[in-house]
Amino acid sequence: MARSFESKEARIDQPKPDTGSRNFWLDQARERQHAAANSPRLTAEEELTAYRNMLLIRRFEEKAGQLYGMGHIAGFCHLYIGQEAVVTGMMMALRDGDQIITAYRDHGHMLATGMDPKGVMAELTGRRSGYSKGKGGSMHMFSVEKNFYGGHGIVGTPAPLGTGIAFANKYRGNDHVCVSFFGEGAANQGQVYESFNMASLWKLPIVYVIENNHYALGTSVERASAEWKELHHRGLAFGIPGEEIDGMDVAAVKAAGERALAYARSGKGPIILEMLTYRYRGHSMSDPAKYRTREEVKDMREHHDPIELVRQRLLEAGHDEDELRGVDRDIRARVAEAAEFAQDDAEPDPAELTTDVVA
Amino acid sequence: MPTEILMPALSPTMEEGTLAKWHVREGDEVHAGDVIAEIETDKATMEVEAIDDGTLGKILVAEGTEHIPVNRPIALLLMNGEGAPDNAPPDTSNAAPIPQPRDSAPAASDPFQAKPQQDEEPQQDEEPPPDLGETPPAVEEAPAGPQAAPDEPAAEPELPSGTEMVTMTVREALRDAMAEEMRRDGDVFVMGEEVAQYEGAYKVTQGLLEEFGERRVIDTPITEYGFAGVGVGAAFAGLRPIVEFMTWNFAMQAIDHIVNSAAKTLYMSGGQMHCPIVFRGRNGAAARVAAQHSQDFSSWYAHVPGLTVIAPYTAADAKGLLKAAIRANSPVIFLENEILYGQSFEVPKAEDFVLPIGKARIAREGADVTLVSYSRGVAYALDAAEQLAGEGIEAEVIDLRTLRPLDIATVVASVKKTNRIVTIEEGWPVCSIGSEICAQVTALAFDDLDAPPTRITGADVPMPYAANLETLALPSVEKIVAAAKAVCYRE
C-alpha cells in the first residue's frame, strides 16, 4: 500500500533541520552530505578504483534488468542499483583470505570480489558456463576461489552461515575475518540474534553488515521494526558494538570497514555496521514499487547517488569528463561482452540434472 | 507397616541402575527430603531423597550393587514405633545372577572414564560391596529387543574373518566412532547442547571434552536454528562438524539450515561448495514423553535430495556408519534411538571399522515373508520373527540401516524369494518409509507379490502420554505377527 509522506512524517518525533525534504531518512542523508567535508578521503587511485568497481555493478545490473525484460533472465532477479558503495567500500577494506557471504541481492557482491561478469551473467541466463553451471540462478552463486560463500535465498541465513565461517577461521587459528551482509528486514530475524549471541560468546572474527535500504520488499523499516532508527545498536544486548555509516559514500564505508575488520581481527569478537543505503529498483524485477513515491527515488538518484558522489570528487581532483566517460565506455563494453556471452552460451547438458546432488 | 523405598527412575527410559552409595545406615532417623542414597545409570548420577519421616529399618540393596531394576525396593522406612522386621522381604521374584563385569564400566586408564557428577561425593570404588549372603537382585526384564546382536550374515564383506568381537552399548559405539574420527582428522569437531561439560544429555559424548578439549567439543546455547547454521557455515569453510541435536524434535527449528543451506548448496553451486556435516541425535519415540518429544523424522529427511539418512539398530552399525558419515563429503542425517542407547551388541574390534552407507543388512534369513525395518523397529521385527517361527512361518528380517539412499535391491531380492512384505516403523503412515518401500516393491516386483504389501506404522495421531494409548500408537510384535500372518493367508 502506498503511504503518503505526510503520514510517515507524522510518526517522526525527532527535530529536523529545515532542508526542504519531506522524509526523515532523506533528511538524515542530507545531514550526512553536509558533513561530507569531514568524511574520510580516499587516495586519488582508490577513488578511481571505487568509481570503476561501482560503475561495473551499476552497468551490469542495468544490463541484467534489460535482459530480464527481454526474457533472457527469468525467475527472481534482485538488482543492487543504488547500493553499490556498500560492498565496494567493504571489499576495499578486506584483506586477502577474508570471506564474504550475503543473501539474494548478490550480483554486486560477486562482481566486487572479482568474479567474472561473464560467469555471473551466464548464470543469470541459466547457461552452462554460469558459476553454478546454470543450476543456481541469480540467488545462488559461489566462488570458493574468491572466498565468496553465496548467494543465499533465505532471508537472515547469512548471519549464522557467516558466523560458521568465522568459527572456522578461529578454529584454524588464521587471522581471516568473515563479512556477513544482510538487510534491515533480516535484522529482525531470530537466527540473527542467535548468531550474535554465539559470535560474541566465542569472540568470533565476523563483521555483520546490515544493508539498510529501508524497504524489506514493500515494508518500510519503521513499519516492521519496533526500534528502527538504530539498527546498529541491535547487538548491544550481546556486547557487540555497532556503527551507523553513510552507505552511499564509498569512502565512509571503506573507513568504517577498516575499523570494523581491525576490531574483529584483533580477537575482540563481532561488530555491526549499519549501512544506510537505498535501492533504486524494485525489490525484484516483478516489484512495481508502489510503496514509495517516484519523488523519493528521484531525490535519492539526483542528490545521493554513490557513483555520482565519487564522480564529482574525481572531477574536483582534476580528472576530466572525457577520462571518466572513457571508463564508463570500457565498462559498458565489458558488460555487453558478458551479456553476449551469456546469451550465446549453451544451456546445461541434460545430464547435469542429476549431478552435484551428493558428493 | 514399613514403607518400601523403591529404586527410582531417573528418566523415562531408565530400566535399571546402580546403587552407588548409601548416605544413611540402618537405624538412622531420616526426614522427608534428606538425601539417603546415590544411584547412577550410564547417563547420570542422582541423589535419592527420603519421601517420609521415619527410621531406616533395613537396607535391602547394598551399595555398589548394579543392575537394580526400577521400582525394586531398596530399603524399608519404619514409621515411629515400628520395629525392624526380622525377615525383610527380599525380592525373590528374579534370582538370576547379575552379569559381571558390567559391560559399560570404563577401565581406569580409559580416556572416556566418566567424571563424577558430584565432585564432593567421590565414588567409593575401593570398597567392594559387602556380601549380603543372598542373591543380589537381577535385571527384571530385558529391554525391548535382543541384548545381543543378531547373527551377522556371512556376506558382510568388509570384515576379515576371525575378527574379535567386543560387547558394547550403542551409546559407547557412537562415542567411539566420534572419538576415533576426531583422532584421525583434526577438522572434525562436535557441537551441540550439553555435549561438552555435561557429556551429552544422553551421555553419548562422554569423555570427548576430556580428550579433545573445548576447542573441539563445544557447548552451544539452546538455539538450534543458529548453531545448525553455524555448523553449516563451518562445513562450507571446510571443517567437518558433528552437530548434535539433543533430540530431533528440536531440530525442527533448524530444518531450514538442514534442508535449504546444507542439502541444496552443492547442487546450487554447481558442485563447488561442499558441506561435509553430520547432524545426529535422538529420534523417534522414547517412553512416556508425549507428542513434542516422540516423533520419528525418518521420512521427513529421507524425502530430501542432497541428504544421506542413516538410522542404525545395532551398535556395530552405529559405529561403522557414524564413522562413514563423518567421512562423507555431503550432509548426513544420523537418527539414533534413546531406547537403543543402553542396549549392548557385538562390535568388531577392528582398527578402522567403517561400514558402507546405503547397504541394508539381512538380520535374519527366512523364506516365507519379508519384514523390513530400521532402528528400533528391527527389534520388533526380530521378536516377531521368533514368534512366527514357532508357528511355522520363517520371516526374513531386513535392517535397512540407511534410509537414503535406500537399498531397494536387497528388499526386492528378498521379496522375490518370499513374495510377501511387511514394513515396520514408528513414524506416521502418510508418506512414510513404508509407503516408499511398498511403492517401489510394487513397481519392481509386481509379479512376485502374492499379497498386498503391508505397512505397520505408528498411529496417525500425535504421540499420547497415557501408557495404554502410547502402546496403541506404536508398532508391536503382536501387530507385526498379525500382519505377517495376514499376508501369508494364515489365521
Automatic annotation (TrEMBL), chain B:
<comment type="function">
    <text>The pyruvate dehydrogenase complex catalyzes the overall conversion of pyruvate to acetyl-CoA and CO2.</text>
</comment>
<feature type="compositionally biased region" description="Acidic residues">
    <location>
        <begin position="119"/>
        <end position="129"/>
    </location>
</feature>
<dbReference type="GO" id="GO:0006086">
    <property type="term" value="P:pyruvate decarboxylation to acetyl-CoA"/>
</dbReference>
<comment type="function">
    <text>The pyruvate dehydrogenase complex catalyzes the overall conversion of pyruvate to acetyl-CoA and CO(2). It contains multiple copies of three enzymatic components: pyruvate dehydrogenase (E1), dihydrolipoamide acetyltransferase (E2) and lipoamide dehydrogenase (E3).</text>
</comment>
<keyword id="KW-0450">Lipoyl</keyword>
<feature type="compositionally biased region" description="Low complexity">
    <location>
        <begin position="134"/>
        <end position="160"/>
    </location>
</feature>
<dbReference type="InterPro" id="IPR011053">
    <property type="entry name" value="Single_hybrid_motif"/>
</dbReference>
<keyword id="KW-0670">Pyruvate</keyword>
<dbReference type="InterPro" id="IPR029061">
    <property type="entry name" value="THDP-binding"/>
</dbReference>
<feature type="region of interest" description="Disordered">
    <location>
        <begin position="81"/>
        <end position="165"/>
    </location>
</feature>
<dbReference type="InterPro" id="IPR003016">
    <property type="entry name" value="2-oxoA_DH_lipoyl-BS"/>
</dbReference>
<dbReference type="InterPro" id="IPR027110">
    <property type="entry name" value="PDHB_mito-type"/>
</dbReference>
<feature type="domain" description="Lipoyl-binding">
    <location>
        <begin position="2"/>
        <end position="78"/>
    </location>
</feature>
<dbReference type="InterPro" id="IPR000089">
    <property type="entry name" value="Biotin_lipoyl"/>
</dbReference>
<keyword id="KW-0786">Thiamine pyrophosphate</keyword>
<keyword id="KW-0560">Oxidoreductase</keyword>
<dbReference type="Pfam" id="PF02780">
    <property type="entry name" value="Transketolase_C"/>
</dbReference>
<comment type="subunit">
    <text>Heterodimer of an alpha and a beta chain.</text>
</comment>
<dbReference type="Pfam" id="PF00364">
    <property type="entry name" value="Biotin_lipoyl"/>
</dbReference>
<dbReference type="InterPro" id="IPR009014">
    <property type="entry name" value="Transketo_C/PFOR_II"/>
</dbReference>
<protein>
    <recommendedName>
        <fullName>Pyruvate dehydrogenase E1 component subunit beta</fullName>
        <ecNumber>1.2.4.1</ecNumber>
    </recommendedName>
</protein>
<dbReference type="InterPro" id="IPR033248">
    <property type="entry name" value="Transketolase_C"/>
</dbReference>
<dbReference type="GO" id="GO:0004739">
    <property type="term" value="F:pyruvate dehydrogenase (acetyl-transferring) activity"/>
</dbReference>
<dbReference type="Pfam" id="PF02779">
    <property type="entry name" value="Transket_pyr"/>
</dbReference>
<dbReference type="InterPro" id="IPR005475">
    <property type="entry name" value="Transketolase-like_Pyr-bd"/>
</dbReference>
